[in-house]
Amino acid sequence: MTLPELTAGQFDLVYNLLSLAIAAMLASFAFFVMARQQLTPKYRPAMIMSSLVVGIAAYHYWRIFNSWEAAYELTAAGSYVASGEPFNDAYRYVDWLLTVPLLVAELVAVLALPKGRRGSLMGRLIIASALMVGLGYPGEVSADVATRVIWAVASTIPFTYILYVLWTELSKAAADNNEEVKGLLRNTKLLLLATWGFYPIAYAMPLLGVGGATAIVALQVGYSIADITAKCGYGVMIYHIARAKMAAEADAELIDTAVAAK
Ligand SMILES: *C/C=C(C)/C=C/C=C(C)/C=C/C1=C(C)CCCC1(C)C
Fold first, then answer.
1. Which of 75, 200, 227, 237 is most buried, by CB atoms within 10 Å?
2. Is the entire prediction scored with pTM above 0.85?
3. pLDDT tens readout for residues 208-219
4. Any idea which fold 8-261 has?
């Protein structure tokens, strides 16, 4: 893709958001590492995966940020033009290829399903995640509208499958839990739909008749905001689910002990 000329405001908006994303990922990494110690062993794998997700993303955002800076140069007139160095969009897709399966696994881990079910569920979801990201990439790097649409449609098939499976699993899991956990699981479903649904919308920007400069800015801003919410916000949500389930399990244990003592 050729890089369009940007106003200083447009260039800075992307620059500052990429920088914010690095800060958010690093802060979340510190939080998830410390939060793990507050959880019982059963829930720790979910927090370890949350830390891996934001750690991997912090590294990739740092690379994207440097690539953005190198791809543009300031003109005497105060606008930004392509420097001749390409802007590397592949970092994002490599990041998703690693972090999307981990995000899915994180949720399956916190639900603490029986071992057999968990294994087959994770296998199917990880394959679907890889397909979704892999099929989206050829369209992302193409400036041709038809190519962009075809790969988007192909990528939407595994995308719909993942959301459908996670949605039904979250609904099923809610049934065996108390009101607090139910509320958290419901909010997680909505968070998933809202954040994951944002990616195809950002992807579609260049198709919606939005012109060169606006399209690239909207795409970068959209993906960065979606990533911060889908990785940091979602990890915090998973932490709250684990805490609420631990509290419910501790209550159940107290009742068991009281009954046994009678
Ligand atoms: C942390 C990164 C996450 C959660 C990335 C999620 C990415 C998607 C849900 C991407 C979906 C896409 C489509 C459904 C169609 C168009 C191509 C994609 C890859 C943008």
1. 227
2. yes
3. 767 789 989 999
4. Rhopdopsin 7-helix transmembrane proteins (1.20.1070)
